[in-house]
Amino acid sequence: MATSVLQPEDCRREHEPKPDIDSPRLTEDERTYILEGKERETGELPPELREKARIELREEPALREQALAQMRHFIEKHPAIRKCRTDAPFLLRFLRTKKYSIPQACSMLERYLTIRQMYPNWFQKLDPLDPKVAAVIDAGYLVPLPKRDAEGRRVVLSCMGRFDPHLYDSCVMARVHSMIVELLLDEPRSQLLGYMHVNDEAGMQMPHVSLWSLTDVRIMLNCIQNSTPMRHKCTHFVNIPHYGVRFFEFAVSLLSDKLKDRVMFHRTSEDLTKHVDPSILPKEYGGTVPLRDMVEELKRNLLKRREELLALDEMCVDLYALEKNDLTQDIHSTAGSFRKLELD
């Protein structure tokens, strides 16, 4: 039986009064946590990162407000979009990923809405209280680390050996990934500084490999690269067993040249820590905080954002009203066949 995402004592913690940010009792980590929580409500970057955003993304207050207005107009007038979030943190996901190119940001938004509706088993019902999802989270399969790396990037750790392929299928795996991604996407610092992925494949078995068809791998990687507003800065793989090498070689071959250059393979955890500061990793990898503590913190954060995660399913796009592209070509072909049958 899956464990609950939040235990009773955690519920009490959730309703405790928040300490003042200027309180001398706060640690630096606690102060940063509070600041980041406030930032994600407004989409505003901290003062020390605004110059970096101006240089790397061309972000300035006037341009940001103009771009947000243009994206809201795009959503309002779009013939296929029936309902969509229009708050600043959500729209800034796309604007910052695309460095304020309005056409590219709007295109990615359209693709994002499209994949959520085309592949609901992967991208919808992101409920941390779902028994299967809760069990996978509790096992420690996928965890965003509490501390960022030296570049300020959010680090996401996956541990394949903690995912039971005999109990859960690829749809559960995909929904866990989608839920963690959605939890992080509204973080302004991450929208600017990007993400590092650390994938520990120790404990990987043949049933893990067979969870995904090659077709689904192609589709998923297309979704990740072209339809998800994340700045992927670096991806590390470690402890890949010999029978998994071909699978990951195939997956990497589907990436863009830019993302291929950002993938690194390591034979051992010791090799990994030459490139990733072990102090930010769980205690099991050389850090100081046990993985279990990180999982418990993740579970509290997911419950706190549960309503937001579930509300994502209210967004809606009319797939048949979209222009034909690589995502919708099968839908248009099917619709065309039905129309031909009707005419005949």
UniProtKB/TrEMBL annotation:
Biased segments, Basic and acidic residues type: 9-29
GO molecular function, one term: phosphatidylinositol bisphosphate binding
Domain CRAL-TRIO: start-end pairs: 130-293
Entry-linked InterPro entries: CRAL-TRIO_dom, CRAL-TRIO_dom_sf, CRAL/TRIO_N_dom, CRAL/TRIO_N_dom_sf
Region listing for Disordered, in residue ranges: 1-29
Domain of life: Eukaryota
CC terms in the record's Gene Ontology section: membrane
SMART domains assigned to the protein according to its UniProt record, in alphabetical order: CRAL_TRIO_N, SEC14
Full protein name: Clavesin-1
Species in which this protein is naturally found: Papilio xuthus
